[in-house]
Amino acid sequence: MRIGVIGAGILGLAVARRLTQVRPDARVTVLDKEDRIAAHQTGHNSGVAHAGLYYAPGSLKATLCRRGIGLLKEYCQDRGLPYLECGKVVVARSIAELEPLLEIERRATANGVPGLRRLRGGELREIEPHAAGVAALHSPTTAIVDFPAVARAYADDVRVAGGEVRLGFEVTRLRRAGERVVVVAPGEELVFDRLVVCAGLQSDRVARLAGDAPEPAIVPFRGEYYRLRPERADLVRGLIYPVPDPRYPFLGVHFTRRVDGGVDVGPNAVLALAREGYRRSDVRAGDVWETVRLPGFRRMARRHWRTGVSEVYGSAVKAAFAARARSFVPELATHDLAPAPAGVRAQAVDPDGSLVDDFRIGRLGPVVTVRNAPSPAATSSLAIAEYVVDRL
Hints:
Number of helices: 10
Shape: globular
Radius of gyration: 21 Å
Strand content: 25-35%
Largest sheet: 9 strands, mixed
Helix content: 25-40%
Structural class: alpha+beta
CATH class of the domain at 1-84 and 145-216 and 357-392: Alpha Beta
CATH architecture of the domain at 1-84 and 145-216 and 357-392: 3-Layer(bba) Sandwich
Number of strands: 21
């Protein structure tokens, strides 16, 4: 049996690794259009291994995140990869945020997140001396990792097991040949008995090639970061997060310590003008036109335009961005922030304009399509791989 996986990010590689374990007789091939693995979402990830605080109990996100973080921790320890349980505080800055904070605590408890502790203002400063808030929720098992290194390790596992990782292979067409799937690239065709689509920012396009529905469609949101200057990195010990707005799957501007000792601040969420547009100057007219003509995008834009304007303002004005972050760490000054690389989130949007929150995974005969896999997909990668392979 020949099994193909489109996408050499952390999720596609995790699926391929799992396939080599449960079907050692199969020939597993990973395909990606880039010249390196983890080129997009995985390579621009904030590096947080999420413990499962926010997700609706019983959802795929909740179930797979809780299993995934355990598998990830064990994997990193076995491979000697960085895995630092620096902990996270979710901070309520005002009385109005106390009830939403309690809802996060209820969800986290239902999801089985270990070690949770509610903090008052003074207790918060024992953990994060420079943070400010009326209360907080502490998750000591939230960790930081190097996800590109994890993805490279997955790829090594695939190769050692006899699988193949084909880079520079841009899929342009898919067609059915009886019970098989023909994957077409310029000048080459490959035939597979089963195919998994884990194409990230291109997932809806590749799913459509496989005959899947046009929506949910991917709308790319650029997440822009700053980085604390090295001499100010001691303002943050671990991870400082806001109480998220329940209307959105984004978590808001927060402080993230990295495994190299640096501290990132962000991200915001602004519409990217290219599917892979990591810079403000990256504009692809075709991508913009494809986005704006989506009925779901237009409905979303009408519903949330005020938030969109606020995010664009924070993107354009550094002082405004810093002011948001300063509400958590009052000592932060605008000049403490240095530019850092941005990421692009592949956010699926339904036809009614709803931002898809949960993982969305479907099947079309011999093809499994991963249509929405935002954070905590990297944390959950090994568990998602189990889920996908079970259905394949």
